[in-house]
Amino acid sequence: MSVKFGIIGGGVMGEALLSRLVSQKIYQPTEIIVGEKSPERRSYLAHQYGVSVTDDNLVVTQASVLLLAIKPQVFTAVAAELASVLAKSVPLIISILAGVSLSQLEEAFPQLPVIRAMPNTPATVGAGMTAISLGAQAGDRDKQTAQQLFSAVGEVVEVPETLMDAVTGLSGSGPAYVALFVEALSDGGVAAGLPRAIATQLALQTVRGTVQLLQETQMHPAELKDRVTSPGGTTIAGVTELERAGFRAGLIAAVKAASQRSQELGAKE
Ligand SMILES: NC(=O)C1=CN([C@@H]2O[C@H](COP(=O)(O)OP(=O)(O)OC[C@H]3O[C@@H](n4cnc5c(N)ncnc54)[C@H](OP(=O)(O)O)[C@@H]3O)[C@@H](O)[C@H]2O)C=CC1
Ligand SMILES: O=C(O)[C@@H]1CCC=N1
């Protein structure tokens, strides 16, 4: 069977996408090849998903869709390694690298269709959020391919490339903020006397339920906050402490800092 999907970098995000694409049968394991430097990761991915693995990235270029999932810091070296081989074929190159711009991708792979994408880790369970921006050589078919691929792992939105660093700071990095929030909510429950398992169950379902309520009703978050805060009640006492701790300002600053870091990662390459 021909190799349809190649991944260079079989780390956290490469695996997150791979696992869902295989479980959703978007690609058969035999249609996927992963180029990965770590021998332990190679044997794990081959054993876990039945995909082909190699330490030679040039072998991965036989795929018709090539996903770059290495760290931004090694982009220049990997691009130099691939460039001569890729010049002879015309795969679609999709990069999920934080900060690495379309112009950097197009300079590295002249004349090839490239798409810059920013997925996130909930892709593993089909609840990802991916933003895509198309390079100048990417046509309708390339866009369809990227949309089909990322819609198999969650929602997809197309944005102008100028917004990609902001996307990275919000939805790319966001699962870490939410995980911290859930952990701290559970810690608060434990501090108030709950057993850990119950505290975690309560925290997770409260986050899930609130998100579902906001999505299904399209209610503004401020309105929901108002509905929960009974006059002189418990919630306003909690909200007062969050405001005192700079909770909202902290989150806004976190998204801006991550967005800024995305710009820096691109500038370094
Ligand atoms: N993690 C996330 O939530 C998200 C990450 N991204 C982007 O995805 C990319 C990967 O991130 P992440 O998965 O977290 O990082 P990881 O470090 O987990 O994955 C990168 C993998 O690439 C391997 N690698 C290093 N050099 C090479 C090479 N020359 N050829 C092939 N493989 C190589 C690494 O091996 P080794 O460890 O041995 O160096 C590692 O296994 C980054 O560019 C990041 O910006 C985008 C969205 C979300
Ligand atoms: O932390 C990072 O740099 C990557 C990009 C977005 C999420 N993780």
UniProtKB/TrEMBL annotation:
NADP(+) binds at residues 8-13, 69-72. The keyword Nucleotide-binding does not apply. GO terms for molecular function: pyrroline-5-carboxylate reductase activity. NADPH binds at residue 57. Its EC number is 1.5.1.2. GO terms for cellular component: cytoplasm. Gene3D superfamilies: NAD(P)-binding Rossmann-like Domain, ProC C-terminal domain-like. InterPro entries: 6-PGluconate_DH-like_C_sf (IPR008927), NAD(P)-bd_dom_sf (IPR036291), P5C_Rdtase_cat_N (IPR028939), P5CR-like_CS (IPR053790), P5CR_dimer (IPR029036), Pyrroline-COOH_reductase (IPR000304). Pathway: Amino-acid biosynthesis; L-proline biosynthesis; L-proline from L-glutamate 5-semialdehyde: step 1/1. Keywords: Amino-acid biosynthesis, Cytoplasm, NADP, Oxidoreductase, Proline biosynthesis. It comes from the Bacteria. Its main location: cytoplasm. Residues 4-99 form the Pyrroline-5-carboxylate reductase catalytic N-terminal domain. It is found in: Cytoplasm. GO terms for biological process: L-proline biosynthetic process. It catalyses: L-proline + NAD(+) = (S)-1-pyrroline-5-carboxylate + NADH + 2 H(+); L-proline + NADP(+) = (S)-1-pyrroline-5-carboxylate + NADPH + 2 H(+). The keyword Oxidoreductase applies. Pfam families: F420_oxidored, P5CR_dimer. Residues 161-265 form the Pyrroline-5-carboxylate reductase dimerisation domain. NCBIfam families: proC (TIGR00112). Catalyzes the reduction of 1-pyrroline-5-carboxylate (PCA) to L-proline. Belongs to the pyrroline-5-carboxylate reductase family. This is Pyrroline-5-carboxylate reductase. It comes from Gloeocapsopsis dulcis AAB1 = 1H9.
